[in-house]
Design a protein that fits this description.
The chain has 2 helices and 6 strands; from the N terminus they run H-E-E-E-E-H-E-E. It has a 6-stranded mixed beta sheet with strand order 1-5-6-4-3-2, covered by helices on one side. The chain is globular and about 35 Å long. 19% of the residues are buried.
Length: 110
């Protein structure tokens, strides 16, 4: 029994650590909302954005859940004030609707 518990924890932790974290700093160059009526069902309920700095391939832009209100506020304020943001993202976790749109896990105002 303990072996199976250990095996389950090991497998779950190996899945969560498989993503490759990256970070970059830049100005928000594009911000878009994929609303509930979007043609692509997989994109619905997400925020997409781009910044003006090079990213690790295959990433050309980012996405996160529209439920992340603080991240959206930081990005809007950054775009309006032309201040840079630091973005932490996974270069190997891409959006289901676009293989060059990578998953963000932290947005930082700097």
């Amino acid at each position: 029994m303990n072996f199976y518990l250990f095996l389950g924890v090991f497998l779950l932790s190996s899945i969560s650590f498989s993503a490759t974290p990256q970070s970059t700093v830049g100005n928000v160059s594009e911000l878009r909302v994929y609303m509930e009526d979007h043609v692509n069902v997989n994109a619905r309920g997400n925020i997409g954005f781009a910044i003006d700095s090079p990213l690790v391939a295959p990433c050309t832009s980012f996405y996160y859940s529209a439920n992340e209100n603080v991240a959206t506020s930081i990005l809007l304020a950054s775009k309006a004030s032309k201040n840079q943001v630091k973005i932490y993202y996974y270069s190997d976790v891409v959006a289901p609707w676009n293989s060059k749109t990578c998953k963000v896990y932290t947005v930082e105002a700097i």
